[in-house]
User: Which sequence fits this backbone?
């Protein structure tokens, strides 16, 4: 993202709305400026701020007069008065930032917006996490801290060493050059994103081991980690296996995402191939 | 939807926060899903949601690309549900946000009766979701627990700000902006209602709960620390 210096009037509204705090008023040029290293191309500024199309010269003049008179004016806090944001054409590898940070952009690998994975949201149809299994979503950078891929790889390496399998229908997994070792492609190591999820599943007996491993690795990372633990309920809708393990580990369970089991397969099955096609 | 899973707060703070969302599974039930998703949103209207959302196009409170000087004094602060419903034109996640359990329960009953075939999830306190499922006679299939935030938590802001900013799990509501709104409410520069609306406009999938935000801002205004 860039800010057009010819339009910007340095009102400062955008400095607050940037989730990464990557926008500041440059005192030399007196314009809002984007720190490109920290910007994750989430487009929150561009999509979230309403746009006015005022004349920049007029606005700067009015602001200068008010400033001289020590008058605090009270503009709407979610408006860019001169529509100064100008999205850039992103190329590889920087485009990865937007793919993981702008929730409106679907991931090419999975076709899903946001963090690009269905997890157990569709488990009633996909059967992704089965009885006796536990699905983990290990999310980095959330909330509002951001993460570099090199930090994600620290975790993926350790998980791979522990012999866990990464979910294939997950955008981070698709960026691995070696799923067996958890190695992520080298050319995106220095890309920062708002958040990204490593997704794994293990037999329920390994729940505690994985949580302890994650806790151990996250101490070495310069970001925050949000851990989600998913499991199947019993046929009567109760969950009696994983919650007691988590509570024993000291977690106070407050919030959950509950799949209500209303989904079903509705796509018609692919028609059987004709005898002629089979013969070929 | 992990973007609703990791909201900050204890179970009691989710008493006015029920996100019900529908999603289809690629290759399994995604054919002809658009009219079903739209119907899901339409069915929410009688139960008075506080927000509706489509992950691709946004929620019921959106930024405007054509503001002009006079619009500062007469901005429409009301949700526009019809725009969300009409704008849903592709396979996505559709969400309805309620600020009370009875509305969420009744909506879930209605969705179950409609038998759309889509996966339907509730994101709220564990007990709140259990009660909704019980009332709607829906048998919970799977559950995803939030274990909260770990690691370098010294990077995180204070509790009030965290409660507000994590209502957009995609991170579009920045901590700085949430802090600014708390400060502005304390200073009397804006009402909690207005501040909540500003924040809601930044959530790009419509799951931000303006009703809970308003309560949090009210509580922050008078809290002594």
Assistant:
């Amino acid at each position: 993202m860039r800010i057009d210096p010819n339009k910007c009037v340095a009102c400062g509204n955008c400095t607050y709305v940037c989730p990464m705090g990557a926008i500041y008023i440059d005192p030399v040029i007196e314009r809002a400026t984007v720190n490109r290293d920290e910007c994750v191309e989430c487009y929150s500024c561009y999509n979230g701020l309403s746009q006015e199309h005022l004349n920049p010269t007029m606005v700067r003049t009015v602001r200068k007069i008010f400033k001289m008179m020590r008058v605090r004016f009270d503009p709407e806090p979610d408006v860019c008065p001169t529509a100064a944001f100008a999205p850039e054409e992103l190329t590889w590898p920087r485009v990865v930032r937007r793919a993981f940070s702008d929730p409106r952009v679907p991931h090419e690998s999975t076709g899903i917006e946001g963090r690009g994975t269905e997890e157990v949201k569709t488990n009633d149809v996909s059967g992704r996490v089965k009885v006796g299994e536990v699905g983990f979503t290990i999310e980095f950078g959330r909330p509002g801290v951001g993460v570099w891929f090199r930090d994600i790889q620290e975790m993926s390496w350790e998980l791979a060493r522990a012999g866990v399998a990464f979910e294939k229908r997950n955008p981070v997994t698709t960026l691995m050059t070696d799923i067996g070792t958890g190695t992520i492609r080298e050319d995106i190591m220095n890309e920062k994103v708002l958040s990204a999820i490593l997704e794994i599943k293990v037999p329920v007996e390994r729940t505690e081991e994985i949580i302890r491993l994650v806790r151990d690795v996250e101490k070495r990372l310069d970001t925050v980690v949000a851990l989600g633990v998913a499991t199947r309920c019993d046929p009567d809708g109760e969950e009696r296996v994983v919650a007691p393990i988590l509570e024993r580990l000291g977690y106070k369970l407050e919030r959950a995402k509950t799949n209500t089991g209303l989904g079903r397969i509705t796509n018609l099955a692919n028609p059987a191939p004709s005898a002629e096609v089979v013969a070929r | 939807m992990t973007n609703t899973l990791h909201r900050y707060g204890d179970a009691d703070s989710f008493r006015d926060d029920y996100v019900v969302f529908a999603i289809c599974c690629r290759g399994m039930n995604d054919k002809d899903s658009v009219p079903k998703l739209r119907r899901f949103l339409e069915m929410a209207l009688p139960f008075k949601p506080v927000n509706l959302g489509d992950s691709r196009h946004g929620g019921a409170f959106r930024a405007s690309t054509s503001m002009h000087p006079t619009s500062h004094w007469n901005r429409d602060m009301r949700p526009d549900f019809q725009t969300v419903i009409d704008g849903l034109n592709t396979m996505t996640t559709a969400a309805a946000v309620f600020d009370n359990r009875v509305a969420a329960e009744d909506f879930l009953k209605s969705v179950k009766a409609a038998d759309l075939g889509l996966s339907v999830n509730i994101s709220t306190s564990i007990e709140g979701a259990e009660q909704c499922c019980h009332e709607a006679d829906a048998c919970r299939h799977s559950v995803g627990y939030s274990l909260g935030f770990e690691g370098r938590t010294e990077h995180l802001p204070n509790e009030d700000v965290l409660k507000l900013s994590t209502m957009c799990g995609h991170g579009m509501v920045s901590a700085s902006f949430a802090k600014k709104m708390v400060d502005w409410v304390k200073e009397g520069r804006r009402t909690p209602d207005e501040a909540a609306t500003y924040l809601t406009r930044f959530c790009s999938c419509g799951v931000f709960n303006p009703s809970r935000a308003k309560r949090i801002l009210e509580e922050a205004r008078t809290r002594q620390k």
